[in-house]
Design goal:
The protein is of the alpha+beta class and 353 residues long. It has ten helices and eleven strands. It has a six-stranded mixed barrel with strand order 3-4-9-6-8-7. It has a four-stranded antiparallel sheet with strand order 2-10-1-11. Helix 1 runs antiparallel to helix 5 (191-201), helix 6 (213-256) runs antiparallel to helix 8 (271-305) and helix 6 (213-256) runs parallel beside helix 9 (316-342).
Protein backbone atom coordinates (compact mmCIF):
# COMPACT_ATOMS: atom_id res chain seq x y z
CA UNK A 1 0.00 0.00 0.00
CA UNK A 2 1.21 3.46 -0.95
CA UNK A 3 0.23 6.45 1.14
CA UNK A 4 0.60 10.16 0.62
CA UNK A 5 -0.83 13.43 1.82
CA UNK A 6 -1.76 16.40 -0.35
CA UNK A 7 -3.56 19.72 -0.21
CA UNK A 8 -6.48 20.66 -2.42
CA UNK A 9 -4.98 23.93 -3.65
CA UNK A 10 -5.53 26.03 -6.75
CA UNK A 11 -8.46 27.58 -8.56
CA UNK A 12 -10.55 24.42 -8.33
CA UNK A 13 -10.38 24.18 -4.55
CA UNK A 14 -11.96 27.36 -3.17
CA UNK A 15 -15.40 26.00 -2.28
CA UNK A 16 -16.48 22.68 -0.70
CA UNK A 17 -18.17 21.52 -3.91
CA UNK A 18 -15.10 22.40 -5.93
CA UNK A 19 -12.90 20.70 -3.34
CA UNK A 20 -14.84 17.49 -3.69
CA UNK A 21 -14.86 17.69 -7.50
CA UNK A 22 -11.08 18.14 -7.47
CA UNK A 23 -10.69 15.22 -5.11
CA UNK A 24 -12.86 13.03 -7.35
CA UNK A 25 -10.65 13.88 -10.32
CA UNK A 26 -7.55 12.93 -8.36
CA UNK A 27 -9.08 9.60 -7.30
CA UNK A 28 -10.14 8.80 -10.87
CA UNK A 29 -6.72 9.69 -12.26
CA UNK A 30 -4.78 7.66 -9.66
CA UNK A 31 -7.07 4.67 -10.19
CA UNK A 32 -5.89 4.55 -13.83
CA UNK A 33 -2.19 4.54 -12.93
CA UNK A 34 -0.30 1.32 -13.80
CA UNK A 35 -0.29 -1.23 -10.98
CA UNK A 36 -3.02 0.47 -8.92
CA UNK A 37 -5.78 -1.85 -7.76
CA UNK A 38 -7.82 0.56 -5.66
CA UNK A 39 -7.55 4.03 -4.18
CA UNK A 40 -9.41 5.94 -1.49
CA UNK A 41 -9.07 9.15 0.47
CA UNK A 42 -9.50 9.95 4.15
CA UNK A 43 -8.95 12.99 6.34
CA UNK A 44 -6.25 11.21 8.39
CA UNK A 45 -4.71 7.79 8.01
CA UNK A 46 -5.46 5.80 11.17
CA UNK A 47 -1.88 4.71 11.85
CA UNK A 48 0.13 7.76 10.90
CA UNK A 49 1.47 10.85 12.63
CA UNK A 50 -0.45 13.21 10.31
CA UNK A 51 -3.07 14.06 12.93
CA UNK A 52 -6.47 12.97 14.11
CA UNK A 53 -10.05 14.12 14.64
CA UNK A 54 -12.06 13.28 17.73
CA UNK A 55 -15.82 13.42 18.26
CA UNK A 56 -18.33 12.73 21.01
CA UNK A 57 -21.25 10.44 20.31
CA UNK A 58 -24.40 9.26 22.08
CA UNK A 59 -27.20 6.88 21.09
CA UNK A 60 -30.01 8.95 19.59
CA UNK A 61 -32.87 9.50 22.02
CA UNK A 62 -30.79 8.90 25.16
CA UNK A 63 -29.83 11.51 27.72
CA UNK A 64 -26.16 11.18 28.56
CA UNK A 65 -24.58 13.42 31.22
CA UNK A 66 -22.09 15.91 29.87
CA UNK A 67 -18.60 14.47 29.81
CA UNK A 68 -19.84 10.87 29.70
CA UNK A 69 -20.39 10.71 25.95
CA UNK A 70 -18.46 8.11 24.00
CA UNK A 71 -15.23 9.57 22.62
CA UNK A 72 -14.36 8.23 19.18
CA UNK A 73 -11.92 8.88 16.37
CA UNK A 74 -13.74 10.41 13.41
CA UNK A 75 -12.75 9.66 9.83
CA UNK A 76 -14.25 11.17 6.68
CA UNK A 77 -13.70 8.72 3.84
CA UNK A 78 -14.36 8.39 0.11
CA UNK A 79 -15.17 5.41 -2.06
CA UNK A 80 -12.41 2.84 -2.24
CA UNK A 81 -11.01 3.67 1.18
CA UNK A 82 -12.08 0.51 3.00
CA UNK A 83 -11.04 -1.67 0.08
CA UNK A 84 -7.61 -0.02 -0.15
CA UNK A 85 -6.95 -0.25 3.57
CA UNK A 86 -8.30 -3.79 3.80
CA UNK A 87 -10.84 -2.92 6.50
CA UNK A 88 -13.57 -5.61 6.53
CA UNK A 89 -17.27 -4.81 6.64
CA UNK A 90 -18.67 -7.02 9.39
CA UNK A 91 -22.30 -6.03 8.84
CA UNK A 92 -24.25 -3.70 6.61
CA UNK A 93 -22.66 -1.82 3.71
CA UNK A 94 -20.25 0.95 2.80
CA UNK A 95 -21.26 4.38 1.51
CA UNK A 96 -22.57 4.75 -2.03
CA UNK A 97 -20.91 7.24 -4.33
CA UNK A 98 -23.95 9.54 -4.30
CA UNK A 99 -24.05 9.51 -0.49
CA UNK A 100 -20.41 10.57 -0.33
CA UNK A 101 -20.97 13.35 -2.87
CA UNK A 102 -24.03 14.64 -0.99
CA UNK A 103 -22.50 14.30 2.47
CA UNK A 104 -25.49 12.23 3.57
CA UNK A 105 -26.10 11.99 7.35
CA UNK A 106 -24.80 8.42 7.50
CA UNK A 107 -22.09 6.69 9.47
CA UNK A 108 -20.19 3.47 9.75
CA UNK A 109 -18.97 2.41 13.19
CA UNK A 110 -16.38 -0.14 14.19
CA UNK A 111 -17.19 -3.19 16.29
CA UNK A 112 -15.89 -1.59 19.51
CA UNK A 113 -18.20 1.40 19.03
CA UNK A 114 -21.18 -0.85 18.22
CA UNK A 115 -20.63 -2.99 21.32
CA UNK A 116 -20.33 0.02 23.61
CA UNK A 117 -23.48 1.72 22.37
CA UNK A 118 -25.72 -1.18 21.34
CA UNK A 119 -24.43 -4.28 23.12
CA UNK A 120 -26.38 -7.40 22.18
CA UNK A 121 -28.25 -5.75 19.30
CA UNK A 122 -27.54 -4.97 15.66
CA UNK A 123 -26.10 -1.47 15.17
CA UNK A 124 -27.14 -1.28 11.50
CA UNK A 125 -30.12 1.05 11.13
CA UNK A 126 -29.58 2.67 14.54
CA UNK A 127 -29.47 6.42 14.99
CA UNK A 128 -26.30 7.97 16.33
CA UNK A 129 -26.05 11.44 17.87
CA UNK A 130 -22.90 13.36 16.95
CA UNK A 131 -22.17 16.33 19.24
CA UNK A 132 -20.82 18.71 16.64
CA UNK A 133 -20.60 22.50 16.41
CA UNK A 134 -22.66 22.98 19.58
CA UNK A 135 -25.53 20.76 18.46
CA UNK A 136 -26.43 17.11 18.18
CA UNK A 137 -26.44 15.90 14.59
CA UNK A 138 -28.38 12.72 13.89
CA UNK A 139 -26.62 10.06 11.80
CA UNK A 140 -27.92 6.71 10.59
CA UNK A 141 -25.56 3.75 10.95
CA UNK A 142 -25.43 1.78 7.68
CA UNK A 143 -22.57 -0.58 8.46
CA UNK A 144 -20.15 -1.99 11.03
CA UNK A 145 -16.43 -2.33 10.22
CA UNK A 146 -13.68 -4.33 11.82
CA UNK A 147 -11.53 -2.52 14.37
CA UNK A 148 -8.43 -0.72 13.16
CA UNK A 149 -5.89 -1.18 15.95
CA UNK A 150 -4.04 2.03 16.78
CA UNK A 151 -0.43 0.94 17.48
CA UNK A 152 0.72 4.27 18.89
CA UNK A 153 -0.36 7.89 18.81
CA UNK A 154 0.41 11.27 20.29
CA UNK A 155 -1.69 10.83 23.42
CA UNK A 156 -0.20 7.43 24.26
CA UNK A 157 -1.70 3.99 23.93
CA UNK A 158 -4.23 4.27 26.75
CA UNK A 159 -5.33 7.77 25.74
CA UNK A 160 -6.29 6.82 22.19
CA UNK A 161 -9.99 5.88 21.83
CA UNK A 162 -10.71 2.44 20.42
CA UNK A 163 -14.11 3.54 19.09
CA UNK A 164 -14.12 4.72 15.46
CA UNK A 165 -16.76 6.47 13.35
CA UNK A 166 -16.58 6.87 9.56
CA UNK A 167 -18.49 9.62 7.75
CA UNK A 168 -18.97 10.32 4.03
CA UNK A 169 -16.09 12.58 3.07
CA UNK A 170 -18.22 15.59 2.20
CA UNK A 171 -19.85 15.42 5.65
CA UNK A 172 -16.53 16.47 7.21
CA UNK A 173 -14.44 17.89 4.36
CA UNK A 174 -10.96 19.29 4.64
CA UNK A 175 -8.34 20.95 2.46
CA UNK A 176 -5.67 18.39 3.34
CA UNK A 177 -6.28 14.75 2.47
CA UNK A 178 -4.50 11.42 2.87
CA UNK A 179 -4.55 8.96 -0.01
CA UNK A 180 -4.43 5.17 0.41
CA UNK A 181 -3.37 3.41 -2.81
CA UNK A 182 -3.44 -0.39 -3.02
CA UNK A 183 -0.96 -1.64 -5.61
CA UNK A 184 -0.25 -5.01 -7.18
CA UNK A 185 3.48 -4.92 -6.41
CA UNK A 186 6.10 -2.71 -4.82
CA UNK A 187 4.15 0.42 -3.76
CA UNK A 188 7.16 2.72 -4.09
CA UNK A 189 7.63 1.58 -7.69
CA UNK A 190 4.14 2.92 -8.45
CA UNK A 191 4.84 6.26 -6.74
CA UNK A 192 6.15 8.16 -9.84
CA UNK A 193 3.09 7.20 -11.92
CA UNK A 194 0.73 8.13 -9.06
CA UNK A 195 2.43 11.51 -8.62
CA UNK A 196 2.28 12.19 -12.37
CA UNK A 197 -1.44 11.34 -12.60
CA UNK A 198 -2.25 13.51 -9.60
CA UNK A 199 -0.47 16.54 -11.00
CA UNK A 200 -2.14 16.05 -14.39
CA UNK A 201 -5.57 15.98 -12.69
CA UNK A 202 -4.81 18.87 -10.33
CA UNK A 203 -1.89 21.03 -11.51
CA UNK A 204 0.29 22.42 -8.77
CA UNK A 205 -1.04 20.07 -6.11
CA UNK A 206 1.37 19.93 -3.12
CA UNK A 207 2.23 16.28 -2.40
CA UNK A 208 4.17 15.16 0.66
CA UNK A 209 4.68 12.14 2.96
CA UNK A 210 4.82 9.84 -0.06
CA UNK A 211 5.56 6.57 1.74
CA UNK A 212 4.68 2.91 1.76
CA UNK A 213 2.48 1.78 4.64
CA UNK A 214 5.45 -0.19 5.97
CA UNK A 215 7.44 3.05 6.16
CA UNK A 216 4.52 4.80 7.86
CA UNK A 217 4.37 2.07 10.51
CA UNK A 218 8.14 2.27 10.99
CA UNK A 219 7.88 6.02 11.61
CA UNK A 220 5.02 5.55 14.06
CA UNK A 221 6.47 2.60 15.97
CA UNK A 222 10.16 3.41 16.19
CA UNK A 223 9.85 5.32 19.48
CA UNK A 224 7.83 2.70 21.42
CA UNK A 225 10.06 -0.01 19.94
CA UNK A 226 13.14 1.89 21.11
CA UNK A 227 11.74 2.24 24.63
CA UNK A 228 10.66 -1.40 24.73
CA UNK A 229 14.13 -2.56 23.68
CA UNK A 230 15.72 -0.26 26.23
CA UNK A 231 13.45 -1.60 28.98
CA UNK A 232 14.25 -5.14 27.83
CA UNK A 233 17.95 -4.42 28.41
CA UNK A 234 17.21 -2.96 31.85
CA UNK A 235 15.00 -5.94 32.64
CA UNK A 236 17.73 -8.43 31.73
CA UNK A 237 20.29 -6.50 33.79
CA UNK A 238 17.90 -6.39 36.76
CA UNK A 239 17.29 -10.14 36.47
CA UNK A 240 21.05 -10.79 36.34
CA UNK A 241 21.65 -8.61 39.39
CA UNK A 242 18.85 -10.40 41.24
CA UNK A 243 20.31 -13.78 40.28
CA UNK A 244 23.82 -12.77 41.36
CA UNK A 245 22.52 -11.39 44.65
CA UNK A 246 20.43 -14.50 45.29
CA UNK A 247 23.37 -16.79 44.50
CA UNK A 248 25.62 -14.86 46.86
CA UNK A 249 23.13 -14.84 49.76
CA UNK A 250 22.29 -18.55 49.50
CA UNK A 251 25.91 -19.60 48.99
CA UNK A 252 26.96 -17.55 52.03
CA UNK A 253 24.16 -19.08 54.10
CA UNK A 254 25.33 -22.57 53.13
CA UNK A 255 28.93 -21.66 53.99
CA UNK A 256 27.79 -20.49 57.43
CA UNK A 257 26.62 -24.05 58.13
CA UNK A 258 30.02 -25.58 57.36
CA UNK A 259 30.79 -26.53 60.99
CA UNK A 260 27.33 -28.01 61.38
CA UNK A 261 27.90 -30.22 58.33
CA UNK A 262 31.33 -31.22 59.62
CA UNK A 263 29.85 -32.30 62.95
CA UNK A 264 27.03 -34.23 61.25
CA UNK A 265 29.57 -36.01 59.03
CA UNK A 266 31.76 -36.80 62.05
CA UNK A 267 28.87 -38.50 63.90
CA UNK A 268 27.91 -40.61 60.86
CA UNK A 269 25.46 -38.62 58.79
CA UNK A 270 25.27 -39.60 55.13
CA UNK A 271 26.53 -37.12 52.59
CA UNK A 272 23.40 -37.51 50.42
CA UNK A 273 21.14 -36.69 53.37
CA UNK A 274 23.19 -33.63 54.22
CA UNK A 275 23.12 -32.46 50.61
CA UNK A 276 19.31 -32.77 50.58
CA UNK A 277 19.12 -30.87 53.87
CA UNK A 278 21.28 -28.01 52.60
CA UNK A 279 19.48 -27.75 49.24
CA UNK A 280 16.09 -27.70 50.99
CA UNK A 281 17.37 -24.89 53.23
CA UNK A 282 18.52 -22.85 50.23
CA UNK A 283 15.26 -23.41 48.38
CA UNK A 284 13.28 -22.32 51.46
CA UNK A 285 15.24 -19.07 51.49
CA UNK A 286 14.51 -18.53 47.79
CA UNK A 287 10.81 -19.43 48.23
CA UNK A 288 10.49 -16.90 51.05
CA UNK A 289 11.96 -14.16 48.89
CA UNK A 290 9.78 -15.10 45.90
CA UNK A 291 6.69 -15.12 48.10
CA UNK A 292 7.44 -11.64 49.47
CA UNK A 293 8.16 -10.40 45.95
CA UNK A 294 4.88 -11.80 44.65
CA UNK A 295 2.93 -10.09 47.43
CA UNK A 296 4.62 -6.77 46.62
CA UNK A 297 3.86 -7.29 42.92
CA UNK A 298 0.17 -7.92 43.62
CA UNK A 299 0.06 -4.77 45.74
CA UNK A 300 1.65 -2.73 42.93
CA UNK A 301 -0.24 -4.39 40.07
CA UNK A 302 -2.77 -1.55 39.62
CA UNK A 303 -0.01 0.99 39.19
CA UNK A 304 1.92 -1.27 36.82
CA UNK A 305 -1.21 -1.95 34.74
CA UNK A 306 -1.30 1.72 33.67
CA UNK A 307 2.21 1.38 32.22
CA UNK A 308 1.59 -1.79 30.20
CA UNK A 309 -0.21 -2.45 26.93
CA UNK A 310 -1.47 -5.86 25.86
CA UNK A 311 -0.04 -7.72 28.86
CA UNK A 312 -0.98 -8.10 32.51
CA UNK A 313 1.41 -7.26 35.37
CA UNK A 314 0.41 -10.66 36.79
CA UNK A 315 1.06 -12.57 33.56
CA UNK A 316 1.32 -16.27 34.60
CA UNK A 317 3.96 -17.36 32.03
CA UNK A 318 6.25 -14.46 32.98
CA UNK A 319 5.85 -15.04 36.72
CA UNK A 320 6.41 -18.78 36.28
CA UNK A 321 9.50 -18.19 34.13
CA UNK A 322 11.07 -15.74 36.57
CA UNK A 323 10.21 -17.96 39.54
CA UNK A 324 11.74 -21.05 37.91
CA UNK A 325 14.86 -19.14 36.88
CA UNK A 326 15.48 -17.80 40.39
CA UNK A 327 14.69 -21.18 41.92
CA UNK A 328 17.32 -22.74 39.63
CA UNK A 329 19.83 -20.11 40.77
CA UNK A 330 19.05 -20.89 44.42
CA UNK A 331 19.43 -24.61 43.72
CA UNK A 332 22.88 -24.11 42.18
CA UNK A 333 23.88 -21.73 44.98
CA UNK A 334 23.03 -24.48 47.49
CA UNK A 335 24.41 -27.50 45.64
CA UNK A 336 27.78 -26.18 44.47
CA UNK A 337 29.26 -25.08 47.84
CA UNK A 338 27.61 -27.97 49.68
CA UNK A 339 29.11 -30.58 47.30
CA UNK A 340 32.54 -29.01 47.68
CA UNK A 341 32.32 -29.13 51.48
CA UNK A 342 30.82 -32.60 51.70
CA UNK A 343 33.60 -34.13 49.61
CA UNK A 344 36.19 -32.97 52.12
CA UNK A 345 37.27 -34.88 55.18
CA UNK A 346 35.09 -34.01 58.25
CA UNK A 347 38.19 -32.71 60.07
CA UNK A 348 38.92 -30.34 57.16
CA UNK A 349 35.31 -29.21 57.12
CA UNK A 350 35.45 -28.37 60.81
CA UNK A 351 38.48 -26.16 60.09
CA UNK A 352 36.54 -24.09 57.51
CA UNK A 353 35.97 -20.56 58.81
Amino acid sequence: MLTLRFTLAGADARQPDQDFAALERVLAAVAEAPGVRSVGAVNYLPVSRDGYALGRFVPAGKDVPKGEELLATVYSATRGYFESLGVPLVRGRAFHREEIAQGAPLALVNETQAKKLWAGTDAVGRRLGWLHDGRQEQLTVVGVTGDIVQPYQIGGLDAWPAAQVFLPYKRLPGKTVSLAVRTGGDPLAAAPAVRERMRAALPGVPIYNLLSMRQVLTQVLWLPRYWSQLFNVFGVLAALLAAIGLFGVVAYSVHQRSREMGIRLAVGARRGELLTLVVAYGLRLAASGLGIGLLLLVAASRLLATLLQGVSPLDPPILAGVGLALTAVAFLASVLPARRLLHLDPVDVLRVE
